[in-house]
Amino acid sequence: MDLVVYVPVAPRLGETVSGREFRTVPGGKGTNQAIAAARAGGRVTMIGAVGDDDFGPRLRAALADSGVDTAGLRTAPGPSGIAHIVVDDEGGNSIVVVPGANGTVTGLAPGDEKRIAAAGALLLQLELPMAGVLAGARAARAHGVRTVLTPAPARPLPDELLALTDLLVPNEHEAEVLTGEREPGRAARALLDAVPEVVITLGGAGSLYAARGAEPVTVPATRVRAVDTTAAGDTFVGALAVAGGEGRPMPAALAWAAAAAGISVCRPGASSSMPERAEIEAAAAG
Hints:
- The protein has 10 helices and 12 strands.
- The protein is an alpha/beta fold and 286 residues long.
């Protein structure tokens, strides 16, 4: 659950500021990407866990209401995961994540491998324990399922996970953490030593796509006035997975995903800001 505070300017260390609004919004990177993909027209199944607290049923309902199959969503004793998010008037944010029930997903449960095998793509993030992420990636590779990894929260990645990743989608900060390279082009080239395809998201500057044996491609972002950028990356990845699954060439898929992300940043909240397919199509066409 995202606990979102809206402030004119984010507080510095030791500083107290007055906020203008507070919201609780279903979120988490896995939930966000699942809802983004479902609203973009994908058929989506979620594997993960919520707690047996008051947030658990709300999180489950948010997924189901967006058309996500929650048969693989476990209920674990204790609290659900939460993210404390501060959003300033420029749309920027800072986030603290407390894993809660996410920390119990250390492997696949009965039925999970079958769910992965039936998919066209497996979206992975790093808000689960690494053991759980690796278990999912191994199952995907065993069944020829494309693995799309968002390496967030940023951390060094095991060589095995990189070897099991088909498409890596970091933002600029995450790419620098993984490679030590601040310039996105150099970071992308370094990442191609480990994975076959990379998309580095560049915020308002768009995204950079690089693949082994091909020239890099930069796709611009949609020009908008941002209200809240919290879920922009997750919206982008969810829409990109759907576009790729439909067979769109990567430049066209990236532009379609950018249109989806552009809509999301014009609205407050995470999952609540994500557009439906018709909205994405209209924005991409316009």
